[in-house]
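Worked Example 4.2. Consider the chain below.
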Amino acid sequence: MQTLIIGIGLEERDINSDIKYNSIIHKYENKFLKIIKTIHPNRLENGVASKSSHCSYCAEILVKYYENNLKFFYNHAMITVCDCDSIWCQDYFLYLYYLSMKIDSKYFNHIV
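Applying the procedure from the previous section yields the following structure tokens:
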């Protein structure tokens, strides 16, 4: 699953966000192509503190990363979003990898 680019969406107001991130990195850093940490700022104009706004902020950062680094592969992207505290289905990432192989795309990039 070294083709997966993972975004970890954390929030600035959570004093334990670094502990959560370091725990995830320690366990999974060698499993994915890249893990990108995003911190949803406390005081965004018109911002609301909610799981959906944290996910949305993380997705925006990942799309910018994709545009800046992988813009020639727009046709080969799959983006899924979920909050850092969510519990993923056991084979979720394996299934994403399977989908990319099923499409048979050599340059398929995932942003999760």
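Residues 4-111 form one domain. The two ends are 12 Å apart (CA to CA). Compare this with Example 4.1 before moving on.
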